[in-house]
Amino acid sequence: MSLSQATRDKLMKVSTATLTTALFKRGFKNIYIQNVHRLRSGPNMVGEAYTLRYIPAREDLDGLESFADPAHAQRKGVEECPSGAVFVIDSRQDASAASAGCILVTRLMKLGCAGVVTDGGFRDSPEIAALDMPSYHARPSAPTNLTKHHAVAINDPIACGGVSVFPGDVVVGDNEGVVCIPAHLADEVAEEAAEMTVFEDFVLEQVQQGSTIIGLYPPTREESRELYKQWRTNNGR
Q1: Whether 41 and 127 share a structural domain
Q2: Cis, peptide link before residue 218, omega less than 30° from 0
Q3: Over the stretch 50-106, which tens digit does the pLDDT of each residue have?
Q4: Which of 18, 38, 92, 215 would bridge 221 by S-S if both were Cys, CB 3.0 to 4.6 A apart?
């Protein structure tokens, strides 16, 4: 995994909203994973994507006995997920059966996984919500994955919530949602998002004090730009 600690640290402090704007400037409009929700609020999730892809289940292949196979893609993917990665599951936006449950998500946590995202659902969702690892899904779903999902590929390009996710892409989640950053853009996007966050903190403070947004956001007036420079100096930012 090649994500630098400096970039990881920056991404831990920026919002998905800010990241979507930084990516939009570069022409990317479809990088926010749709219809996934965090099970419990907390600090940002940041890591490189490690993926699992499901296709529709088939009755002759997806009995409970299939879990005994050590090469079963779901089990194998969990065991091989690198520390610091985000485990991203393509469930075809089908939450009528679980993508995983508490035991597998706990195993990911113990392996040092940075988080887990599915565009389907989790079973044991109250227990997953209590774990010390960010988890995102569409909604709770009690039925075993075998009723609807056949795990077919590990660490291939997938779709998750309508977004293309390639292995190694940088996945960032906050309490609002999840963004997928193309790997080759992660460093520059993190840097710009960090700068945008500082500016937006300044703007919010000004607005809270009664300032108009005209000429401030964006800073089209010279006096706004000078005020911002002084604010950064005064606040050590």
Answers
A1: yes
A2: yes
A3: 999 999 999 999 999 999 999 999 999 999 999 999 999 999 999 999 999 999 999
A4: 215
Residue in this structure with the two tokens 């400037």, named with its chain if needed: 25
Please give the backbone phi and psi of residue 120, each rounded to the nearest 5 degrees, phi first.
-105, -140
Indicate the number of domains in the chain. 2
What tokens does 104 get?
């597998």
Q: Are residues 58 and 88 in the same domain?
A: yes
Q: Which residue has the tokens 């969990």?
A: 78
Query: What is the number of helices (H) and of strands (E) in the chain?
Result: 7, 13
Same domain membership, residue 137 and residue 111: yes
User: What are the start-end ranges of the E strands in the chain?
Assistant: 37-38, 45-56, 86-90, 98-100, 115-118, 121-122, 135-137, 139-140, 149-154, 158-160, 163-165, 170-173, 178-181
pLDDT tens-digit map of 183-235? 999 999 999 999 999 999 999 999 999 999 999 999 999 999 999 999 999 99
Q: State the Cα–Cα distance between residues 110 and 61, nearest whole angstrom.
A: 29
On whether both 103 and 216 belong to a single domain, the answer is: no
Residues 62 and 124 placed together within one structural domain of the fold: yes
Please state whether the predicted TM-score (pTM) of the whole model is above 0.90: yes
Same-domain pairing of 220 and 140: no
Domain, as residue range, for 230? 189-235
The set of long-range contacts for 99-106, using a CB threshold of 8 Å and a minimum separation of 24, is 99/54, 99/137, 99/141, 99/145, 99/149, 100/74, 100/145, 101/128, 102/127, 102/128, 102/131, 104/74, 104/75, 104/78, 105/131, 105/133, 105/135, 106/131
